[in-house]
Structure formats: C-alpha cells, structure tokens
Design goal:
heterodimer, A: about 300 residues, mainly alpha, MetI-like fold, 15 helices, about 80% helix, globular, B: about 525 residues, alpha+beta, D-Maltodextrin-Binding Protein, domain 2, Dipeptide-binding Protein, domain 1, Dipeptide-binding Protein, domain 3, 3 domains, eight-stranded mixed beta sheet, four-stranded antiparallel beta sheet, 16 helices, about 35% helix, ABC transporter substrate-binding protein (chain B), peptide transmembrane transporter activity (chain B), TAT_signal (chain B)
Chain lengths: ~300, ~525
C-alpha cells in the first residue's frame, strides 16, 4: 500500500511538472494558433475574435491558472483546430502507438537477447564480430531509411506486405498483415541496441567468480549461460526494454510517417506545428503517464527477476 | 558455422510470429473494429495531411477543402473541366440592370444529409449572414462584404442585394469556401464547435467518421439531386510520404493519389506505366514578393533588375524537372481574364546589372524569407545564387510555418513566397496581393497600391469583354511595376489506378469523387 501511495505521488508530481513546463514552452515558440487555423486570408478582426474565443488574449499566467483548475477536474481543454476534447483525440491514437511499440519490442527482444547471449558466449569469434558489425549498422542506419528500403523490397518488389502500415476497417489478420513491416523495422532497429546491451551485461556476469566456480564444478555450458548468467544479466536488459517501450510510444514518428500509421508521436508533431497548445499538452501528459507507469511495472518486474531488489 | 546461423534465424522467425500473435491478442482485447470484410465498392483517395475543420466559414487548406467538396453545394459551381460558372443549388439567376440585385431560383426537393429536412432559401440566408457576422470570425467575411441584404421571398427563391455593382459576385457564391451552403437547423443542433467535424451538406457524399491521423470516411448520398454516386463509400486516407503513396497506388491500396507534387515521384509514376497520371495548370502562381516599403526595393528599377536576374527556366527545368510551367504574370491560363500581353522579364543578368547601376544601387543585402516546407525552402537556394551573380547578397531565411506566417503578417519582411491557391476568380489573387485593403496583416506584403482605381473599375465592369479589358489592364500595370516576381505557374498532378474511370481533374487544387466509377 505504502509503495502504491509513493508511486502515485511520484506520478502526480512528474505529470504536474511536465505539463507545466510544456504549457510555457509551447507558448514560447513563435507563431499563433489563430493564424494557423484561419490561414492566409485571416483578417485582423477574425484573428482577434478567435484569440478571444480561445482565451489566448489573456496573460499567459492567467491562462495557466485556468488550465490547471480545469485539469484538476479532468478537463484538459479542447483541440484548437478541431474543437474536440484534446485528451480524447490523443487517446484515440494510443492503441495504434501501443500496438506498434509492443509488437516492435517483442520482435526486438526475440532477436536481440539471443544474439546478445550468443555473442557474449563466443566473445572474439567471427560470429561475434559479424553480429556486432551488423548491430552497429542497425544502430547507425536511420529508421526512415530502413522503413523506405523495406517498403521498396517487401511491398513494391515482392508484394508480400502492404505499403500502408495501418489497415482501414479490415479484419484481425488484415491488421496483423499491415503491422508486420512497421513493427519489423522498429524491432530490427531496437534489436541492435538490445543485442549490444545484452552482450555487455552477459560479459560482465560471465566473468564473475560464481560462473567460474560453476564451470569448474562441471555445470553444463547451456545451464551456465541460460540459468545462472542470464538471470543476473536480465535487470539492465529489462530496464532498456521498458525505457524503449515508453520511448517508442511517442518517438516512432518517422516510422509512423513512412508507413502512414496514426500515432501519438505524429499527433504531437502535428499539434506543435499547428500551435494546438491543448493537444500538445494532452499528448505530453499521456506520454508522461505512460513512462511513469512503465517504470512502476519495471520496478515490480525487477523484484520478480531478482528477489534481492524487492527486499529494498 | 553458416548452418548454426541459419538455425538461429529460423528460430527467430517462428518466435517473431509468436510475438505478433501476442500483439494481435492485445488488439483483439482493445476492442478495435474487427472482421468486417470490405464488400461494397469503396473509393480510396490519398490525402497528404490530416483534416481539421470542415466549417465553410473557417475552412482552409486543400485537404479540408477536398473533403468538403464532396459534402457541400453552392448556389453555383465551377464546371470541373471548363471553369465556367454553372448551376448548382440555384437552377437559374437574374441580375438587375444596374448590377446590384441577384435573384436566384433554387432547386426544389433537395434534402439535407442525416435527416435535417429540406433545403430552403432560409439556409442560404443563414449561411451568408453567418460568414458576415463578426462574431463568427470568418476569414471570408471580406469575400461577401459587398452584400447589403439577403431576402427570402419564397422557400425556393433568394434575392441578394449588393451595396454597389460587383461583376465578379457569382464567384463569391460558388461552391468553394464561403460559397458552400450549410443548414441552419443542423448547425443549431450540432453547435458551432462540434460542427467543424460533423458537417452536414446536400452534396453527393455524407460525412460519417473521422479517425485522427488515419482516415475520413464518407458514404454515398442515395438521395443526391443529380443521382446517387457510383461508389458506396469514399475513404480519404492520410498518407504523408509521397513515395509511400506512390507504392500504395501501384499496389492498388489506394485508387486516387491526390496532391501529387514531388517531381521525382511524378516521373516515377509516369515512367512505371501502371497508373494514369493527369496534369493541369493550377489557378495559382508561386511568387517572390518584394516589399516596396523597404529600401532599395522601393525603386522599380531594382525590382525589375531582380526579375531579370532570376533564371526561372532553369528553376523549372532543373529543380522541378519540367513539372511546372513558366508564368508570364500572377494569373494562369486557367483564368478567363488571363492575358500574357504584359511586361516580360527574360533571364538577363547583364540587363539586371545595368538596371541596378541606373538606379544607383551598389551591392546590397537581401533576406529571402521562405516557409520551411517543400519546395519553398529549396527553391530559394538557386534564386539566391542567381541574385549573387548580379551583385545582390541574398541571405536565405527559412522559417518554420507558424513563425513564417507571423513574420509575413507583420509585413516587415523584405521578401517572402506567396501563392494564392483557390477558385478561378481573378479578384482572389488581385485583392489578396495588390489591394491596399490587404496590407499586412493581409497578403499584400509588397505594400503595393498601384491598382486601386483599376480594382474599383473592375467591380463596375459589366459583361465579359469589359471585364477582360480592365483585368488585362491590372495585369499589365502590376507586371510593369514588378512588386512581385512570378516564379512559376503551378501545375497540378493527380494519379489514379486503371480501375478508375470518369474522373475529371479540376484546377482548384481539390477534386470531386462524384463522377468516379470503379471497375471490378
């Protein structure tokens, strides 16, 4: 219970801080939502009317006070452009973002962890070198390049998968069919990080005394690696997986653009360029909550992986 | 060694699949729409960015306008092919001898989408008065400013009285922006705010649902007065990247590629031969605006020198790979009032230098201000080097869109890039770019006031010949004074699959899905 209260307090403080900073930051960028909305032909009167309707004619600090009061009641304002509740609009793309992040990470874990283990086990061998070089490429290649290249290969040439990464009202299999390429690209680019991280975590553990003892006692190599070493190397790997998940919820913008997928990242980008203040704030709020939640879940997971950590 | 590597890869593939299945289970749990097979013919159209507002009083941007084109009607409309004004909701109209009273006979039996009842003259009155009401804050109030009163003697008759004759008035009430008619009842019940994405019209398609960042879904209006559309559903899909959109078109994932602009993608689709690529002159030119209130741009010789210094042909052939056309003025050939009998500024660096010398201007610095959007942020580069060749030190300043609009609105930028996209109504670019009433915060960043008397004369001109003459004079005067440099006439490209027939490309930078027939 105590732990829950602590985490809730942490959540509240983080969200409050982030939303406050965002509130003032987006208002500091030059540009005007009224101008964006009304376009090139806007007259000065029309701009003034709209600014007044949106409350943008008041001092920023007053705007902030009003926003904070309403936010306490769960009202995060309406999108300047569409007039719809900002939070609702952001949440409408949460499933798309979560699905992409989840599927991408699943692929990354499935590729990255075994490769990391194999390379750590055979440190200095040709296979280690080869995989590390490939992983370096994976890290160095920009994700939009990988995305476009995969569209050209798998969609245009081979016609295995659609070029559009989001299905439109199709069935379950259709959804999966559309998801393969974007999730694959995200997965492969993240897998490179996970491979390298797993490798160094494993190397550290494999050089420890207890592993040497286990080997000396004749414990089979398979058991040494998978049971004794991996379990201890798992905590940093879990950390990077969790952080990457939270990160890709909001930062998979390039993948979303290349594959024409809706998502929170592109939604926030759109909102920033339209100076849709409320939408930016709602987007950042959702991401902040997601990051804090993922970290809380990770805390729990650490305890499961390594009982010493939950005793703390 | 190779063998083990293989095994590893195969193993991964199986587990990868497992991961996807797990991801799929998550979708199933989240209650997404599942299992509906697309049975009825759906026309899928690519749009380059998301929509945001479909309220005719506030509408802006080609994606919004394109979706709205399917939903609304105007009193009159532009014929897609010829740009002539033809009947839409009005079947006929009479103009009084002095040119101030327009009396429209309205189509009867027209009903609003979603059971909002019959369309009547009261809706016309409501729509125009709403745009004019300062409370609405419409950007298009100025377009209808000549209206004195709107009367409704009968449900199928509307009489509009003007403050003074305005020969271009029919353009203002044509099916575009402020000319689109909405329902008094629908707006009242839906409310101002929610209406932006719950539009109700009389057009061939009924707005159904907008999924942010993904798509807009419309259904066929079976009761459409000209007959039901030939497709059941119309889907606008947001696909930002043009390369991805091209592949999606060739793969048959979309049927029509709207807003095709990148020269490389145009060439690619044309070369591939799998799809049909249409092109047509747009109604707008892209212009480099010169601020005449800033030294030394106040001197006409300096502005003419700049016009001579820019190699526009090289820009079109090189950067645009021939996908744009040369502009002789600020109107394009798609305007009925167009003339090319104006001062021409062929590329001639020597003449430019001579003009600068004649004006007594030594080397000076000029900021080229452009929005950070393709192609404007790129075309300023060759322009800068052309200017450097005649001794003008051009500094490129690319601003993010919001910051650019703000800077241009202040009117203090020495140059900027402007194109007035829209209807083939010559008043639209002329009033926006060259009338004193459009001084910043309007689009007259030139601070040009050389055609005030001609603008007044154009309003009075009755009959096509008289109009053509006075608009010809305006074009000649402006091009002589050179407050702007027309960089190129935009050309519009749309591609569609071979399964699409009946499609007619317009010059408004929108499209109508109504005539389209889908094969198979």
């Amino acid at each position: 219970m105590d732990r829950l209260t602590r985490q809730l307090t942490q959540l509240a403080i983080t969200v409050f801080g982030i939303v406050t900073v965002t509130f003032f930051l987006v208002r500091m960028i030059p540009g005007d939502p009224a101008q964006y909305m009304l376009g090139d032909y806007a007259t000065e009167e029309a701009l003034a009317t709209l600014r007044a309707q949106l409350g943008l004619d008041r001092p920023v600090i007053v705007q902030y006070g009003l926003y904070a009061l309403r936010a306490l009641t769960g009202d995060f304002g309406a999108s300047v452009v569409t007039g719809r509740p900002a939070l609702e609009e952001i949440l409408s793309s949460l499933p798309d973002s979560a699905l992409l992040a989840f599927a991408g990470l699943a692929i990354a874990v499935v590729i990255g962890i075994p490769l990391g283990i194999v390379t750590a086990e055979r440190q200095g061998s040709w296979s280690d070198l080869l995989i590390m070089v490939v992983a370096l490429f994976g890290i160095s290649f920009p994700v939009f390049w990988l995305g476009l290249a995969s569209v050209l290969l798998f969609s245009q040439e081979l016609k295995w998968f659609p070029a559009l990464g989001a299905s439109s009202g199709g069935g379950f299999l259709d959804q999966i069919h559309h998801l393969v390429l974007p999730a694959g690209v995200l997965g492969v680019s993240v897998a490179a990080y996970i491979t390298r991280l797993t490798r160094s975590a494993m190397l550290e553990v494999l050089n420890q005394d207890y592993i040497r003892v286990a080997r000396a006692m004749g414990v089979p190599q398979r058991r040494v690696v998978w049971r004794l070493a991996l379990k201890n190397a798992l905590v940093p790997i879990l950390a990077i997986v969790g952080v990457t998940f939270a990160w890709s919820l909001g930062s998979a913008i390039l993948i979303e653009v290349v594959f024409s997928r809706p998502g929170i990242g592109s939604m926030i980008l759109k909102a920033v360029s339209a100076r849709d203040y409320q939408l930016v704030q709602a987007g950042v709020l959702v991401l902040a909550v997601a990051v804090v939640l993922v970290n809380s879940l990770l805390d729990l997971a650490y305890g499961l992986v390594d009982p010493r950590l939950s005793a703390r | 060694m190779v063998g083990t590597h293989r095994q590893q890869r195969n193993g991964v593939t199986r587990r990868q699949f497992g991961g996807l299945l797990a991801a799929g289970a998550l979708v199933a749990g989240s209650g997404w729409p599942l299992g509906v097979a697309a049975a009825p013919p759906v026309l899928r159209v690519r749009i380059g960015s998301d929509i945001g507002n479909l309220d005719p009083a506030r509408i802006f941007q080609i994606e919004n306008q394109t979706v709205a084109t399917q939903i609304y009607n105007g009193l009159v409309k532009y014929d897609e092919a010829s740009n002539a004004l033809v009947p839409d909701l009005a079947t006929s109209w009479e103009i009084s001898g002095d040119g101030t009273v327009y009396s429209f006979a309205l189509r009867s039996g027209v009903v609003w989408h979603k059971n909002y009842g019959p369309f009547t003259s009261d809706d016309v009155k409501f729509s125009f008065e709403r745009v004019l009401d300062p409370q609405t804050g419409s950007s298009y109030a100025g377009q209808l400013a000549s209206i004195k009163s709107v009367e409704t003697p009968a449900p199928d008759r509307v009489v509009i009285t003007l403050k003074e004759p305005n020969s271009g008035f029919l353009h203002k009430v044509s099916a575009f922006n402020q000319g689109w008619i909405l329902s008094r009842k629908a707006l009242g019940e839906i409310g101002e705010k929610a209406y932006a994405l719950n539009p109700v019209g009389t057009g061939p398609f009924v707005f159904q649902v907008w999924t942010p960042g993904r798509e807009v879904r419309l259904s066929a209006n079976k009761d459409y007065f000209d007959g039901a559309p030939k497709v059941e559903e119309l889907l606008f899909r947001v696909i930002k990247d043009e390369t991805a959109a091209a592949i999606a078109l060739e793969n048959g994932e979309v049927d029509i590629f709207f807003g095709l602009q990148q020269p490389e993608v145009i060439q690619r689709l044309k070369g591939g031969g799998q799809v049909t690529v249409l092109d047509r002159d747009a109604n707008h030119t892209i212009n480099l605006i010169l601020n005449t209130s800033i030294k030394p741009l106040g001197d006409v010789r300096v502005r003419q020198a700049i016009s001579h210094a820019i190699n526009r042909k090289a820009l079109i052939d090189g950067f645009f790979k021939g996908t744009k056309t040369e502009a002789s003025g600020f109107l394009t050939s798609s305007f009925q009032e167009f003339t090319n009998d104006v001062a021409a500024y062929p590329y001639d660096p020597q003449k430019a230098k001579a003009l600068l010398k004649e004006a007594g201007v030594g080397p000076f610095t000029l900021d080229l201000v452009a929005p950070g959007a393709n192609p404007y942020d790129k075309i300023v580069v060759p322009i800068a080097s052309d200017l450097a060749a005649v001794g003008i030190d051009a500094k490129i300043k690319v601003l993010e869109r919001g910051a650019y609009l703000q800077a241009r609105n202040k009117g203090t930028v020495p140059t900027c890039v402007t194109g007035v996209v829209g209807a083939p109504d010559p008043d639209s670019p002329i009033l926006s770019m060259f009338a004193k009433s459009s001084f910043p915060p309007g689009l007259n960043t030139s601070h040009y006031e050389g055609v005030e008397d001609l603008i007044a004369a154009a309003r009075q001109a009755q009959g096509d010949a008289a109009r053509k003459e006075v608009y010809g004079k305006i074009q000649a005067k402006v091009m002589g004074d050179a407050p702007i440099v027309p960089l190129y006439a935009d050309r519009l490209y749309i591609a569609h699959t071979k399964g699409v027939s009946g499609f007619v490309q317009n010059s408004l930078f929108t499209m109508s899905a109504y005539p389209v027939v889908l094969a198979g």
